[in-house]
Design brief:
The complex is a heterodimer of chains A (346) and B (382).
Chain A lengths: L1 H13 L1 H6 L10 H8 L2 E6 L7 E2 L5 E2 L1 H14 L5 E6 L4 H6 L5 E2 L7 H4 L4 E3 L4 E3 L1 E6 L14 E5 L3 H12 L5 E5 L2 H9 L5 E5 H10 L7 E3 L7 E3 L2 E3 L3 H19 L7 H4 L5 H6 L16 H8 L3 H8 L29
Helix pairs in contact in A: 4-10, 4-13, 10-13
Chain B lengths: L2 H14 L19 H8 L4 H27 L8 H6 L6 H12 L8 H18 L7 H18 L15 H27 L4 H15 L3 H15 L8 H27 L2 H9 L4 H16 L1 H14 L9 E2 H8 L9 H29 L8
Helix pairs in contact in B: 1-3, 5-8, 5-15, 6-7, 8-9, 8-11, 8-15, 9-11, 10-11, 11-13, 11-14, 14-16, 15-16
The chains are: A alpha/beta (346), B mainly alpha (382).
């Protein structure tokens, strides 16, 4: 057994060069939905520990806005949001996990880019969090805009796209950059709070979390208005199975649509009796919308009943009801100044 | 000048006073109450540079130890569920560990079932402790393990006797670290002996395979072996076929450790005098009996220090399994810090797991010294 695996892994290593050279992602998938149903659970790739997005709580229960997408898919397929097997994935392993079929979907704080959507063999199904890279400074510095940061020391985590974006931004604006690069996230935060650098740069969601939790007095710090990068984060599936792609896509849309229509986990039971034809269609009271995806017609009802709508998920995990205390911002509904927009469910 | 700066001098003068000018300065064992002063004079204050060094060391200790004790013990917060209490305090926030110890120790294992890994770990450690004592190296020891290992497996996995099934992707914390290292040790050691013997074999094919394997594995870091096992390996499997992640990591660790252990064993084999080989041949022993009865017992005894060195290193290297998403002890400690309210107290979390790692590694290191003394048969060259 041992020896056999040894030879296989040796062979695997020998073929690395080849594998890297050949573009991946042309894998043809079998019907994922059937496999998921036969298995009895959705295998979902999540972050190893990113509070608010995907992290186990003190009791080892997975929580987060990304985790809620996994739960929504399970609720749509099985009517039970607990039928999920979570696979924590490192940043390096996440794309392969989707390509190799180790996970049915990836919901792990992953930025939707062209390369990932094409050459890497993923299909992004939507966006569940609009993030962007920003700066935070101490109020004492008196800086109002990122353009004034020329010559400032900036704390940044090494080996991330954050670092590259920072360099790009300063070069593009012909400003002088003095980066303080630190590998560990806690230490970057610690260095900034201790005053070792004038500014810290990271994704806006992280900056807000740092301000709320790591600074002695949050009111002394300000997040500058400029966003120097777009980070649309969303779930993805493997290319080649359109049915499964649709299911994951519409599971998230159902959550967004539910918020727009005012359907919550608390009132969805009563809403079954709603005279509104849109609500009736969505909750499967009339029509055959679920069947079209190979699901039960109560798919959206089950999502809203167990996971809640997008707004509930946001508030609970990253919003004002959570320790991160993020404002809705870009993640508000389209009719409320944000970008969250679901195509009609009909 | 504050009170602290004076103190080394106080210590100095206190120790100077009772010394008579012509006391013989032989060095009796330290700690002997009457001779402490003599010993100090002979060893700490024998010359001007020594005196300066001693004073400098005392000063550094005085500057660091009291604040450390202050931080770690006196001003520390031991128990609170409110992180704000910790922010107010000047000392360490051990409350983080008190609050999250179950997650740090058991990771993702279902909360209500955590008595199972606890019991399995207790069984595991108790059997390990029993196996360490050479007086117990009897016929019943393998029998004991033959009972304990399946018992641990049943406890961890469940699925029978009314225990709910817990998938091994949910194992974590200390049990996972112990399983990876003990199973790694148990399997890699015999494999390493075979590799070492193979490398010294007179059959070219066997020798080539063993040399090739050892040199190849030693040429790559463990991280890359694990990375291959987790990231590249699945791409070569047929669609939908997956090999268990824990197994992949475990096999990676076994292969990796075996290559290093093999070199330690080979060192031992080379240190056995040629006469021993010849004597065994002269007795008409076959290859396996020659090795099993004459050569290996001596070779392994000689290689105890490098072997234990490798075991300790492997124990700590198990923390690399996070790159394939397994929550070992170090990762659970890190994950406990994902909670932003507690994140400022990362030092405490790391100190806690460092203590656990230290306890195990220190035990291994002392045990190897005990074994060396125990196995001493008068051949030691010193």
């Amino acid at each position: 057994m041992t020896v056999k695996v040894a030879f296989q892994s040796v062979a695997a290593m020998a073929l690395v060069a080849l594998a890297v050279a050949v573009p991946m992602g042309t894998a043809l998938a079998g019907p994922t939905l059937d496999a998921v149903k036969a298995r009895g659970e959705v295998v979902c790739g999540v972050h190893t520990s990113l509070y608010g997005f995907g992290a186990p709580d003190d009791k080892g229960v997975w929580r987060g806005i990304d985790v809620d997408v996994c739960r929504a898919v399970a609720a749509a397929v099985f009517g039970d949001d607990k039928k999920v097997k979570y696979v924590p994935l490192s940043a390096q392993a996440r794309l392969t996990a989707v390509q190799s079929g180790e996970v049915d979907l990836l919901s792990r704080n992953t930025t939707w880019t062209l390369t990932r959507d094409t050459a890497n063999g993923l299909n992004f199904t939507g966006i569940n969090y609009f993030d962007g890279q920003g700066f935070m400074v101490s109020k004492k510095l008196g800086v109002k805009s990122a353009k004034e940061l020329s010559g400032a020391t900036v704390c940044v985590q090494t080996g991330t796209t954050t670092e590259l974006n920072l360099a790009d931004y300063f070069r593009a604006n012909k400003m002088e950059l003095k980066p303080v690069t630190i590998e560990k996230y806690e230490e970057v935060t610690g260095a900034f709070v201790a005053g070792r650098c004038d500014a810290i740069t990271s994704d806006a969601s992280q900056l807000a979390a740092i301000r709320a939790n790591d600074t002695p007095n949050p009111a002394d710090f300000v997040i500058l208005p400029e966003m120097i990068s777009k980070e649309p984060l969303g779930p993805s599936v493997r290319q080649g199975d359109d049915q499964w792609f649709d299911i994951v896509k519409w599971a998230l849309f159902a959550m967004i649509e539910a918020e727009e229509r005012g359907l919550t986990s608390a009132n969805v039971e009563a809403a079954l009796k709603s005279p509104d034809p849109n609500v009736q269609r969505m909750l499967g009271v009339t029509g055959d919308l679920g069947k079209g995806m190979g699901l039960d017609n109560k798919w959206a009802y089950n999502i809203i009943r167990t996971v809640g709508n997008y707004g509930e998920s946001f508030e609970r995990n990253v919003g004002m009801g959570s320790k991160l205390q993020l404002a809705r911002g870009l993640n508000a509904q389209w009719n409320d100044g944000g970008l969250m927009y679901s195509p009609p469910i009909r | 000048m504050n009170a602290r700066d004076e103190t080394p001098e106080e210590i100095f003068s206190r120790e100077e006073e009772p010394i008579e000018p012509h006391v013989a300065v032989k060095a009796p064992p330290a700690g002997h109450p009457l001779r402490v002063v003599d010993w100090a004079k002979a060893n700490l204050f024998s010359s001007v540079p020594n005196t300066v060094l001693t004073l400098a060391c005392l000063w550094v200790l005085w500057e660091t130890i009291p604040p450390l004790i202050d931080w770690a013990l006196l001003k520390a917060v031991w128990q609170t569920s409110d992180p704000r209490v910790c922010r107010e305090a000047d000392g360490a926030c051990w409350a983080l560990v008190t609050e999250k110890h179950r997650f740090i120790l058991f990771g993702l294992y279902p909360w209500n079932e955590q008595w199972r890994p606890l019991l399995a770990m207790a069984l595991f450690i108790a059997s390990g402790a029993v196996s360490c004592y050479p007086g117990f190296w009897r016929w019943w020891l393998p029998v004991l393990w033959a009972i304990v290992l399946p018992a641990c497996a049943v406890l961890m996995w469940g699925g029978i006797f009314g225990l709910t099934f817990v998938d091994n992707t949910q194992w974590g914390g200390l049990p996972l670290t112990l399983i990876l290292s003990v199973v790694g040790l148990v399997f890699s050691f015999p494999f390493a002996i075979l590799l070492a013997l193979g490398r010294r074999s007179e059959l070219p094919a066997i020798r080539a395979v063993c040399v090739g394997f050892i040199e190849f594995v030693r040429g790559v870091p463990l991280v890359s072996v694990l990375f291959m096992a987790s990231v590249m390996f699945p791409l070569f499997l047929p669609e939908g076929v997956t090999v268990d992640k824990l197994l992949r990591a475990q096999v990676g660790i076994i292969l990796f450790t075996a290559a290093y252990l093999a070199e330690a064993v080979r060192g031992g084999l080379q240190a056995v005098p040629r006469g021993q080989y010849e004597a065994a041949d002269a007795l008409g022993l076959g290859y396996w009996r020659k090795m099993g009865l004459i050569i290996l017992p001596q070779a392994l005894k000689i290689s105890i220090p490098p072997l234990v060195n490798q075991f300790i290193s492997m124990f700590k290297d198990t923390s690399l399994v996070i790159i394939i998403g397994l929550f070992d002890l170090l990762t659970t400690a890190k994950t406990a810090l994902a909670d932003p309210e507690w994140r400022p107290f990362f030092i405490e979390s790391y100190a806690f797991v460092a203590l656990i790692y230290f306890a195990f590694c220190f035990f291994m290191s002392r045990y190897s010294q005990f074994l060396e003394r125990r196995m001493e048969t008068g051949h030691r060259r010193s």
